[in-house]
Amino acid sequence: MAYHTDYKTDEEKLSEEIRLKNLSNVYIIYGNDTYLKEYYCGKLISLSYSGDPFFNFQKFGYDAVIQDVYDAVNQFPMMSDSKCVLLDDYDVFSCSQEDFERLCRLVGEVEDGCVFIIKFDYIDFDRKKNSRVTKLRKAVEKANGKIYNITHRTKQQLTKMLIKSAKNRGVELFETEAAYLTERVGDDLSVLKNELEKLCLYRKTGKITKEDIENVCITDMNASVFDYVGCIVEGNVSKALKLLDKMFFMKTDEYSVFYQICSVYHDMYRALAAKRAGKQKKDIASDFSYPSNTVFRIDRANRYINRFDFSKIEKSYDCLIKTDKILKSYGANAREILEQTTVELAAILLGD
Q1: Where are the domains of the chain?
Q2: Cα(65)–Cα(61) distance, rounded to whole angstroms?
């Protein structure tokens, strides 16, 4: 029996709402994609008021006085039927209880003719089991408002978008190269758009190749670390050290590099354990709460685990724990330590 679903992402729901011009009075917009949050908030703002923005659009930031926001929301539009108020990255966790309670009351009192948008950028509104998150959510839902979690697009969505965008610029980009671009650059839409623009200017006409991407585009640190670990797994210590040197040249923080290396080894341990237990990728993603836009990490880990057994993984962890302790010691030379760790990790895989 075939099953069908009309499941839509929050981005798709919000996009449709904007397309149909069917706006609510209250919105909470949060999530990990800054570019998309800014884009959709801009669309909501442009649709939610008419007339002079000086009178009918008001924006408040993290240091807002809630009474001022309250007054703005309850003010009548000037020479217009509608207005918009944006509260941008207000710290609902650090504000006083009185201000928080007033904000919760306010979302329930927004009248027709006003759209009140609460957007979170640096404030993490996705905290689990937080009483303030729960209460504000309930207040918005009770007011028939909308709450949208705008996350990075999936690899498939990004690939499709990149191919279309390149075509619009008169350049060919095929699926394999588009997927490689997302792996190398990352899934931040604003960065991807910028790197695609560079590629199209570089190529001008014809097909974008993997070599073009390597020559022109910046490399996301996660991608660099995966390539680095891949070299260790293959026993190519020289190339691994060159990649490490490249990350240092890019002024990447040594500790960030190290913790990303540890993260890849965590992925490989999980992949190896899942393989031994007869589990699938979806089981790993579910059991270890991988966000949908990071599931590709499991695929990459699966490429490497054939060279591992649990003994080698345990020895690798011992090496990483030792490195962590040394890095945290006073006066440690992080670069030399990570170079030594690179050689030791490769030696473990070679059985030496």
Answers
A1: 10-149, 155-216, 221-350
A2: 9
pTM beyond 0.70, yes or no? no
Cβ distance 225 to 192 under 8 Å? no
Rounded to 10 deg, the angle between the 221-234 and 254-276 helix axes is 60
Query: Is residue 154 a contact partner of residue 188, using CB atoms and an 8 Å limit?
Result: no
165-175 pLDDT, tens digit each: 999 999 999 99
Sheet containing 26-30: give its strands across: 57-60, 83-88, 114-119, 26-30, 146-149
Mean pLDDT of the residues in the chain: 86
Tokens of 101: 């309670």
Q: Do domains 10-149 and 155-216 have the same CATH topology?
A: no
- Which CATH entry fits the domain spanning 155-216: 3.40.50.410, 3.40.50.150, 1.10.8.60, 2.60.370.10? 1.10.8.60
Cα→Cα distances 345→43, 152, 257, 260, Å: 50, 33, 15, 15
CA angle 148-154-157, nearest 5°? 100
> Comparing 76 with 79, which gets the higher pLDDT?
76
| Highest-scoring range by mean pLDDT, 76-80, 265-269, 325-329 | 265-269
User: Do the Cβ atoms of 208 and 176 come closer than 8 Å?
Assistant: no
- Answer yes or no: is pLDDT of 281 > 50: yes
Residue 33 · residue 150 · CB < 8 Å: yes
Given a contact cutoff of 8 angstroms between Cβ atoms, the answer to whether 53 and 64 are in contact is: no
CATH topology of domain 221-350: Zinc Finger, Delta Prime; domain 3 (1.20.272)
Query: Residues 271-308, buried b or exposed e (16+ Cβ, 10 A)?
Result: bbebeeeeeebeebbeeeebeebeebbbebbbebbeeb
CA distance 125 to 121: 9
CA gap 295, 239 in Å, rounded:
26
Of 323, 284, 330, 286, which is closest to residue 305 (Cα–Cα)? 284
Whether pLDDT at 50 is above 90 = no
Fold that domain 10-149 belongs to in CATH: Rossmann fold (3.40.50)
Q: Which residues share a beta bridge with 30?
A: 149
